[in-house]
Amino acid sequence: MNATQPITAADGTPLKKKLAQAMFRSKLRAAGLVAPLLAFVLASFIFPIFALMWQGVHNNTFERLMPNLTEELRVWDGLSEPTEEMYTLLVADLRQNRADKTIGRVASRVNQELAGTRSLFTSTARKAAKLEPPYRDALIKTKKKWGEIKVWQAMKLTNQSLTPGFYATSLDAVYTVDQGFIMKEEKRQIYTKLFIRTLMISGSVMLLCLLLGYPVAYLLATLPLKYSNLLMIMVLLPFWTSLLVRTTAWIAILQSQGVVNDILVWVGIAADDSRFSLIYNMTGTIIAMTHILLPFMILPLYSVMKTIPPSYMRAARSLGATPTRAFIKVYVPQTIPGMGAGGLLVFILAIGYYITPALVGGQDGQLISNMIAYHMQKSLNWSLAAALGGILLGGVLILYWAYDRIIGIDNMKLG
Amino acid sequence: MLDGSDPFVCFRNVQKSYDGETLVVKNLNLEIESGEFVTMLGPSGSGKTTCLMMLAGFETATHGEIELGGKPINNIPPHKRGIGMVFQNYALFPHMTVAENLTFPLKVRGMSSGEIDEKVGRALDMVQMRFFADRKPAQLSGGQQQRIALARALVFEPELVLMDEPLGALDKQLREHMQYEIKHIHENLGVTVVYVTHDQSEALTMSNRIAVFDDGVIQQLADPVTLYEKPENAFVAQFIGENNTLAGTVTSLSGGVASVTLDSGDAVKALAINTDGKGSATQLSVRPERCVVTPKKKAGLSSLKGRIEELIYLGDHIRCRMTVAGNDEFIVKVPNTADQLGLQIGAEPYVGWQTDDCRALDVKDA
Amino acid sequence: MSGLTKKFVALAGLSAFVAGNAVAAELTVVSWGGAYTKSQVEAYHKPWMAQTGHTIISEDYGGGIAEIKAQVDSGNVTWDVVDVELSDAIRACDEGLLEEIDHSTLPPAPDGTPAADDFLPGTLHDCAVASIVWSSVYVYDTSKVRNWNVPKTMGDFFDTNAYPGKRGMRKSPKVTMEFALIADGVPVSEVYDVLGTEEGIERAFAKLDTIKDDVIWWEAGAQPAQLLADGEVIFTTAWNGRVFNAVAAEDQSFEMVWDGQIYDLDLWVIPKGSKNVEAALDFVRFSTATEQLANQASWISYGPARASSVPLIGTYHDNPAIKMADHMPTAPGNFANALQNDFEFWADNQDDLNERFNAWLAQ
Fold first, then answer.
1. Nearest chain A residue (CA) to C87
2. Among A104, A119, A362, whose Cβ lies nearest the Cβ of C344?
3. Fewer CB within 10 A of the terminal residue: chain C, N end or C end?
4. B3 lies in a domain?
């Protein structure tokens, strides 16, 4: 047969086409089976994530609620004196927002850029109806801040709906009208420190989980069934206890008048008046998180170890390796998929933890997720929360990518 | 081979119990000469693998001595015994390439890399696997993995190699091929091999001597021919090859020949191999290929009347199932010659055999 | 829903049946939980349900306006009345999240004084009506024997030489920064003026630096009493009602230091789009009447927001020996050096100061 000619089916149509036709129905059915879950995941997971990520770079509160001023602000150079025209449009917008009861949203948004402007907007809006032209003088008379250029610059920045400002804030920089990005002074930097601390704590927790979990998983995989079942129940016990109960238990155990310190004092390792600080600091966070995340390390390790027959170790020893050498050279490398899966799982869970650090973290055990929660729940600066979350998500994706490059994602085994 | 010097491997009164209540191995005594190929053959649970593991050092003997090269090795850990071992599932390290697998035993012995390369190359050549050096075990077929496992067990040139059912996972044809290959490697290297299997044809093909295990005891230790031709008890007769049995009672003994009255009432003669003397129950054992079917009684043979129940045509011979002296599972292999083709189901010819081919053995229950 | 609340619902349902009221509403009232919610249930919810035949479902929350905002923005408002802090009430009102409340419909004082004149200054707002005055103070445990002079001033809280040991403080710049300035010698009348300047902020952080290593930061209102009882800290800042409750109901021997106290308001608000606006308004009017406010004060030591309620304050509900008036933030003996929380300052500066506060913590 000529190689350049396509192979045809018995009725003369190209075989590839025929096959595609035959496969179409089964593909259609497969798609139909997957569709509900796909739709669910899209609606409940993918779409919200993108919507939130979008908020991290896009906030149109000002543009939407200040429709008169927005055009004028866009063309303003940000440095020259604001014109009477701009003041007039501002008053018009303030009046409208006062009537619509939306002034608080505008004020909150501008306040995110420049602290101290919330009351400037809300109190001025209350009086806006009574103001008489010329508006520039009237406004400055009401609040002299209206004459300051930085207030107008803050408005110009918030007027820009698509903004890198929140990401800049997330990395301890300020986005300005005239100078682009400027790093904040050292003592006001917070988020980069928290990101680094989050990575450090998560890394420590991951390593501790590996160190503590490996022997347990090994025991689980090698003990006779009746003992290993009991051990498995003990490993899983924390899963069945509420997170808050477990965390509170750690407080009772680790606090300076707690069980551990009492024992240390009784044994004589610590003096009664200089007990160890084991909680409300980084130590407490690491201990409590390690405990909570341990099963996520043990289970993947166990499932991998379970599949390693004892004959490998025997083979290694029959070939002349000491038990230690056989373990390190033959057994441990085969558990890498489990270590990888457990490590990745623990690490990713750890960087998202916030209840435990909030309760036992004190001041130096806080993680970036506590900051995200704060901006979601308290300051209501969702855009900043989204930007912080975006950076965290990006970090996880990079880690995942690195893991794939170094170990290979196919090598991961969860159970 | 058997030159009277000290045996290379020696089990002396070895007993093994896992639970402290039952003995898996009962008072084992076994001597293996250097360069011998000895197979431990037996059904599962007979204690053969336990013996092998005690020799390798992965199980400890509950009682007794195991010696290797004249020295007791009970307290020597496995990695210091210098014994090569091939496992049932090959146990090739999945995270290492073929070459790395072979390098492993040499590296732990601290050999130089030049020496290692040379030995690995030679071992791979021996099993014709040089082109696969950089593959991972998962990329090899079962037979190829088996060769690598063999090469790995031999690459550090041990004097003793243990093989634990190494061919169990292979298909029939490949298994037979590998049997010859292992046999040839053994012959070429002169290494001592202790081989465990439950497959009697494998044992017969490869071994110098075979130890037949049952119930923790060696039932018979002999070369393949003796084992097949002269089984010493009913278990061995049944386990090795095909066998017809007839139950009866010894009526008299003279000159190593027993007169036996069968349960059906017929009287026959048999070699008295393993009986408790006059009046005791016995089990007669006759190989199917040593029986002849004749229309009439033939002089010089013990003959009994039988009835043909089933005929199976197998080309070179016909397998003929008969009822003889109450046993309806009596098999006769009839050579495919022109005059024998008149066999008919329902016919009642005579079945005969030489007295030397009929062995009176102990009675085995079940 | 707690078993207690269920019982109220059942009780109210029964009374509604007896009264033959066909249009009984189910009102969701949200507050801060614990002893505080209990005082509201006893003083407001029960009598109101008995009187109107409506039912109240009581829910707890942790403050802030995030949930109100989420409900209003999504158009699915399930909360009808919420107890909020002043700065949150102002902010939520500005953002259009709340129903307006007409002050003229609030019940007058028993002597006929109109509500607008009877409520303490600053307690009535467009969208909110105050019910109580509460206060942040610091507290110590008298049962722990220590050889020190009895602490009396805010300065003592920051004096680690005279009072060595750990201190509990709320992990928030609010109150914490004011305390620092008061301790540093700023008169209460000038605290917010000073804090409004860059130097003032630096000054507050500098004062906080002196005790930073000795502070255990708390976040939930129940924590400080626990920290103190466990002996984790020698002093802790706390909300005065929680401390009083630990003393009166749990027999703790805590003592409050009122010097430099910072008082604030809790107010009722009605989320915009509540399905029971009329009933909610009725509840707000009922609960902020003179008598009810005075009643609540017999359950917890928070001061009523109406002048006419003060003379009616009695004794603790199950212990006549405790005169509640003495334990109010507004009692003359306690009120000598007090500062009112400036909601406008915090509305403007909360985000910024919080960021700086966290940065300071992380240093």
1. A119
2. A119
3. N
4. no
Residues in A closer than 8 angstroms to C356, CB to CB, are 188
Q: Residue B4 falls within a domain, yes or no?
A: no
**Which fold does the domain A192-411 belong to in CATH?**
MetI-like fold (1.10.3720)
pLDDT level of residue A411 (50, 70, 90 thresholds)? low
ipTM above 0.85, yes or no: no
Cβ atoms of residues A122 and A19 within 8 Å: no
Q: Which CATH number goes with the domain that contains B332?
A: 2.40.50.100
- Residue of chain B with shortest Cα separation from A337: B95
C230 plus C357 within the same structural domain? yes
Domain that holds residue C234: 137-263+336-362
CATH classification of the domain holding B68: 3.40.50.300
d(CA B150, CA C308): 100
Is C184 in the same domain as C99? no
**B touches which chains (3+ CB pairs under 8 A)?**
A
Yes or no: say if C297 and C44 are a contact pair by the CB < 8 Å rule. Answer: no
| Predicted structure pTM score | 0.78
At C152, which CATH number? 3.40.190.10
Quickly list DSSP for C111-127. Answer: T---HHHHBPTT-EETT
Nearest 5°: phi and psi at B193?
A: -125, 130
- Say if the Cβ atoms of B56 and A334 lie within 8 Å: no
Mean pLDDT in residue range C124-138: 93
- Alpha carbons within 13 angstroms on the beta-carbon side of residue B77 total 10
Domain count, chain B: 2
Q: Please state, in angstroms and rounded to a whole number, the distance separating the CA atoms of residues C88 and A120.
A: 17
Q: Is the pLDDT of residue A173 over 80?
A: yes
- Res C183 pLDDT > 50: yes
Q: Which of B203, B234, B265 is the last residue of a domain?
A: B234
The closest of C183, C175, C231 to C206, measured between CA atoms, is C183
C349 in the same domain as C223:
yes
Cα separation, A253 vs A274, in Å, equals: 17
Strands (E) located in A82-193:
173-176, 180-183
B79 with B160, same domain: the answer is: yes
B68 and B143, same domain (yes or no): yes
Instruction: Please count the residue pairs, one from chain A and one from chain B, whose beta carbons lie less than 8 angstroms apart.
Output: 68
Q: CA-nearest residue of chain B to A335? A: B95
pLDDT digit string (tens) for A61-101?
999 999 999 999 999 998 899 999 999 999 999 999 988 88
- The distance of C272 to chain A (nearest Cα, Å) reads 11
Same domain as B186, residue B291: no
Which residue, among A402, A394, A415, A381, has the nearest Cα to A351 in the 3D structure? A394
Of C95, C217, C353, the CB nearest to A362: C217
**Plot region of A362 (φ>0 → left; ψ -120 to 50 → alpha; else → beta):** left
Query: Which chains does chain A touch, 3 or more C-beta pairs < 8 A?
Result: B, C
Asked if residue C222 and residue C250 are part of one domain, the reply reads: yes
Cα–Cα distance, A12 to C339 (Å, whole number):
94
Instruction: Supply the pLDDT for residue C122.
Output: 87
Q: What is the pLDDT of residues C241-266, one digit of tens each?
A: 889 988 888 888 899 999 999 999 99
Q: Does the beta-carbon distance from C94 to A117 stay under 8 Å? A: no
* Percent of chain C surpassing pLDDT 70: 93
User: B343 lies in which domain range?
Assistant: 242-361
Residues B109 and B146 in one domain: yes
**Six token digits for residue B120:** 């690995």
Q: In terms of domains, do C323 and C180 share one?
A: no
Cβ neighbours of B95 in A, within 8 Å: 333-334, 336
Residue of chain A whose alpha carbon sits nearest to that of C356: A188
Residue B277 lies inside a defined structural domain of this protein: yes
Q: Do A377 and C64 touch (CB under 8 A)?
A: yes
Domain segments of chain A as ranges: 62-162, 192-411
Q: Has residue C346 got a pLDDT over 50?
A: yes
Of A314, A320, A322, the CB nearest to B156: A320
Q: Count of domains in chain C? A: 2
What pLDDT shows up at residue C204?
Answer: 96
Q: How far is A399 from chain C (nearest CA, A)?
A: 25
Closest in A314, A319, A323 to B104, CB measured: A319
Nearest-by-Cβ selection for A318 from B83, B94, B95 = B83
pLDDT of residue A4: 60
